[in-house]
Amino acid sequence: MSSIIIDTSASRGVTELLRFLLESGKIDAAITMRNDPENNTYDLGLITDASNLDEAVPLIPVMTVNAGQALSSISISRKKIAVVLKPCELRAFVELVKREKGSLENLLTISYTCGGVFPLDTVITEQIEELLPKYKKIILNGEIPVNTRDTCRTCEHFIPMNADITVSVIGECKPGAGCVMYLNTEKAEDFAEDFAGERSDRKFDPSALKKTLDARLAEKEKLFASITKDGPGLDRLLDTFGKCVGCHGCSSVCPICYCLLCDFESANFDYNLPYFEEHLSRKGALRLPPDTIFFHLGRLTHMSFSCVGCGMCSDVCPVDIPVAAVFKKTGEKTAALFDYLPGRDVEESIPVMVYKEEEFPDIG
Amino acid sequence: MIPREDEPMTDAQRKGAVLPVAKDPGDAILEFLRLAVASELADAVILPMKVPSGDSYAWILMNDVSLMDDAVPIAAAMPVQGAKALRSLTRKSPGNLTVIAVMRPCEIRAAVELVKLGQVHADNLILATYDCPGAVQLQKYVDDPEGSEEHFSRMLQSGKPDNTAKPVCHYCEEFSMFDSDLHFGYLGLSEKEVLVIPGSDKGSELLAGLGLDPARDLSDWEKGIDSLKVERETARKSAFEETGEQLRGFSGMLSVFANCIGCHNCQSACPICYCRLCYFDSETAQQDPDALITAAAKRGGISLPEDRIMFHVGRMTHMSLSCVSCGQCTDACPVSIPVAGAFSYVADRTQRTFEYKAGRNDGDPLPLRQFRKSELPGIHELVKNAESEGPSHE
Amino acid sequence: MKKEFTPRITSFLCKWCSYTGADLAGTARLQYPTSIIPIQVMCSSRVDPVFLIKAFLSGSDGVLIGGCHPGDCHYETGNYHARRRFAIVMGVFDSLGLESQRLKLSWISASEGPKFARVANEYTEEIMALGENPTRKSIFL
Asked: How many domains does one find in chain C?
């Protein structure tokens, strides 16, 4: 597999690749982040006309929607689509493909070594363009920008898994020195054939990103410790999730939670009066609507092993619950039970769909 | 509460019983509720209580009088719309517990709408409201609970929302209402008293049971309320003018909702949107992927997730007739879109079309549940105007 | 000493094995405590993780799943899936520092009446030592 040296910025390089693909008719549509300078907003755009690529900012550290989730229904189209996504978005999409909620067949996936994204709060209150120079400098040095999402600062999977094309942003992309696009698959070679740019046989070297990895791992330890800093247990759980307003925004932006109607919103958990009377007679009081903690614990058992730590849930929480940090921590634990890593391999079955005859000797 | 069988009282008939105040109006309300539960005139009450982390409130259904010491009847913030609490309790059946709920007027109005929609069974509920000065924005409360409490206590005294209050509270005219079974009035009165005013037979019976005689004339209190109403009406006029300007045309809509990420938090926080599975989240609303790409090709590109503007306009048509302008949608929006301002503005117009007022408990059925053979004479004008302005193609 | 109390152990018992095992314990007049509240399920894999959590949060002092021994499932593989789901719930509880001792899975066949009685006795004692589930009195759950 070869690589392409781009002599402009990585962002422009990717945009040019998308332009080439659209203009040559190799793809029918491109999906990438866009910037609307007029409203100062960002969104994920589905672009069919190359002239609309002027608004594309494919590598912008902003996530308005997990692109893996947005791709889900579109990906089953018979049309050819190139999509630029963050590593966690691609992992989320792979998890959806395993659940038959998407297909990689007609997609060309382009991902990049990710420095983390700014929280939505920052995106709407500040000028991202002004934050970028400092951000780029920090990630180039293998350090962590403090103003990114907590799950990004602690993310160790910032190197894309399963991408057809990997764009090297964090380590190698030095200003003026050009950037590298690694073509990882036959598909990538086919699509990028005839695309201008110096070819090389340079291989992606993850060890160059060791500094970033170490910094992220150290940060992760700190974050996980902070979740249980006042001791674990029921009281701690109530302190964290007790102020939940029950909007379920965390589940609706979660790329893994694909159910149209979540179990916890279904009629299964509508109660008749005797339910409330029993609670009243037992403890003299109960919360309305009920099932606040139940929802989060339930969701943890339903999807945590597939959690990619994208951080959308924390960003949309109206009462600033650190949902993503808790789900990431618990998710690592539940995935590790099965030596599972969400988004690693599309052939790897999700843990609840398979079993081994000999496992968990301590249970039962 | 509904269907209303008793004749609504005329203003002249309305009188209140005086409750003594030890500390603040909230205390007087608590004392009243304790008495009601202790005298077995109510089985339980629903009140806000601080959550364990201290930076928000939750609705608590309680029958243990000792737990009421920790309740805060007039809470600074409204994290969960009270009508949703009532819905979770009575959606399946009215049951046989008599429960008194003390909530903001907009929460009771939402509950009234939910009764009409068959989602709340209020047969055994006694719905009580109080003079509401407004609620502190949720984000502000969570960021600084102590400071917010101080702001709110000043708001309580003046009856006026300050800059920490939700934007819609500034121009809410329904901050004090009679349409509840009971109303606790304190604005315009001496600090030593709260008036409890019955608004229905249920309310009157409760007062009688407690030996409270509604003998006090309401004129002092009404004067206090009326002067505040004037200010709110002025604020409402200018807010609607501004919102109307911002929302004008498709480009206006696009720019107000420009930051929308399609999370539908506004809809899930909305007390009126009771559908388990919103149409806009359903399979029916999902576009065929090939058709979507073809549609995108017509414009060169589209934004994902698709149909975000369609969602808001659609929701306006689905629920604005019942919108009570409680502002929960804005509080829940992760990208600070003034959803409530837009919905309140639209609701004002759609409700006026049918001379309907959401939350009014006068036995009026929902506008879409009835029709008259001869009505809406202006509809032809509307169509003509729309044609002359021409469709927008931005 | 903790105050003596009668624990409530919500028990999801597979119709084909543990539930019959419990019956056998009864007909053999083996003593086991009244703390066990049996709920018959068609298979241990019928127990969604949310059942365990609901029982736990509703104040059950212990939650027990009784299923067929691995390899003996009436539906061939149900209990293997049940085991995985149970492992996930335990993982969630452990990572949050919740009392995972309040959850238990045991393989008890239809012929193992004595084992059922033993598990019921031992688990009840274990739960007695743990004390009442704090969720029983919590109003903010």
From this structure: 1
